[in-house]
Amino acid sequence: MPSTERGELAGRTVFRVGFGAMQLERLHADRGAAVALLRRAVELGVDHVDTAQFYGNGFVNSVLRDALRAGDDFLVASKVGADPDPGAPIPLRLAQRPAQLRASVEDNLRALGLDRLPLVNLRRADRRPGVLAQGDQLVDLDDQLAVLTAMRDEGKLGAIGLSSVTTDTLRRALPAGITCVQNAYSLVSRDDEDMLALCVAQDIAWVPYFPLGGAFPGLPKVTGEPAVLAAAQALGHSPEQVGLAWLLQHAPNVHLIPGTASEAHLEANIAAAGIELDAATVAALDAIPTRSMDAALG
Predict the structure, then answer these.
(1) Which residue is catalytic, options 15, 19, 54, 55?
(2) In the chain, pLDDT over 90 holds for what percent of residues?
(3) 2.60.40.10, 3.20.20.100, 3.30.457.10, 3.50.50.60: which CATH number matches 8-212+252-261?
(4) Helix (H) or strand (E) holding 40
(5) Residue 181 and residue 19: Cα distance in Å, rounded?
(6) Is-catalytic flag, 55?
(7) What b/e readout covers 151-171, taking b as 16+ CB neighbours within 10 angstroms?
(8) Residue 116, Cβ neighbours under 10 Å: how many?
(9) What pTM, to 2 d.p., does this model score?
(10) Element (H, E) at 179
(11) pLDDT, tens digit, for every residue of 83-116?
(12) How far, in Å, CA of 173 to CA of 193, rounded?
């Protein structure tokens, strides 16, 4: 793969398009298909995956355990800050307290069959989208980082990332050695441009979720933008691929984790890494107005 298609994530050089495993839950009734999709991702060069124990109440992690092999040299990034809550309207509950974070890391290790998690992202609960912390789930960042850095020292995890945070939170966390930030970010919702610039300056990977927008009612969709549709038609690619390609060209530290339960979509997502947008196309896409996610969510 060309060097521009690879970048640094948690101390490793990886393909800049990974796999977001949450959508594997859609294959709950066909475990074999879920395993086969992950094996296909590996065949296509994917070498990092984003997961969490609360994805499918452990189903996703169990599929990863079955699908990944010792020789794959795969970077597994998991997430803590919430635990499964099957049967609830939202099938997870916040788990922000230090003891809960430690237990969540241990749960991930057992489910994945690993002795060490290469990357653990702390999902804060003080910013939308997602459930906001209340009561005893309002936990100071320093207390959370203390338990994660202790587990890093113990060898239970390799690197620490943050998810759904503000620039101020990131700045406070920098002394802990943050290697990754996962925030909602796309061509049509670029609230965090200053934080992205800080991550570039600090050699921190930027891993946007909702990379095509539209994940919740009221959020704009990249694929509905006339400039994106025009670029897709001119280039002979899908609007989704144009949106992903723009992210990869927008900053050198961007890593993508698009999720899917479809092999065709998987192949299309990976192919986006090979799309080069010319200067005129980038200018047209950059001119698309950004819409605040907070405003869109009301």
Answers:
(1) 55
(2) 87
(3) 3.20.20.100
(4) helix 31-43
(5) 16
(6) yes
(7) bbeeebbbbbbbbbbbeebbe
(8) 13
(9) 0.95
(10) strand 178-182
(11) 999 888 888 899 999 999 999 999 999 999 999 9
(12) 18
